[in-house]
């Protein structure tokens, strides 16, 4: 009971705390934030949403690898409860040299290719850190995975990070689906949707996805 009390206390502090951890060469920043406007009924752990985004060497699950993974948790009203690790995973030059031309160009442009070469973080360490974070803020098999075209991230989780996949609820919230429905059913709203920056870096892409769904929530799903 004491640990549960402490956990709740930390999550409801009206300040921002940055806790740096350095373990096995892995350095991340955990961002815990509290919003006084959050509706307590919407902030129950069973209503929370786990957002994950990855950058990969390609989209073929059987041969491509995860280069970067980031995670954050929101409440049901899409307020950020906690911002988790943004981790660059080491990949050898032989893997990166075999990326398709689009990935080579894009990941070189963002600096991700070099960052993967320089990283000392392995796949298992990255999985451990992400899993630790989501366990701190959600209950097992209660929170769905959310993101843009997030079915692809789910496939990579299933293959490369199965413990994270098993912890998640089986449902997903795919912002891309909402976007496609809005484009067909209400083009005027779709035309006013926030423009994406297409940075193709994991954490910034997640934040854009959250903002995008907030837009559709306040317009397309407006009661």
TrEMBL record:
This is Probable oligoribonuclease. One of its GO terms (molecular function) is 3'-5'-RNA exonuclease activity. SUPFAM superfamilies: Ribonuclease H-like. Keywords: Exonuclease, Hydrolase, Nuclease. It comes from the Eukaryota. Belongs to the oligoribonuclease family. InterPro entries: Oligoribonuclease, Ribonucl_H, RNaseH-like_sf, RNaseH_sf. One of its GO terms (cellular component) is mitochondrion. Residues 48-222 form the Exonuclease domain.
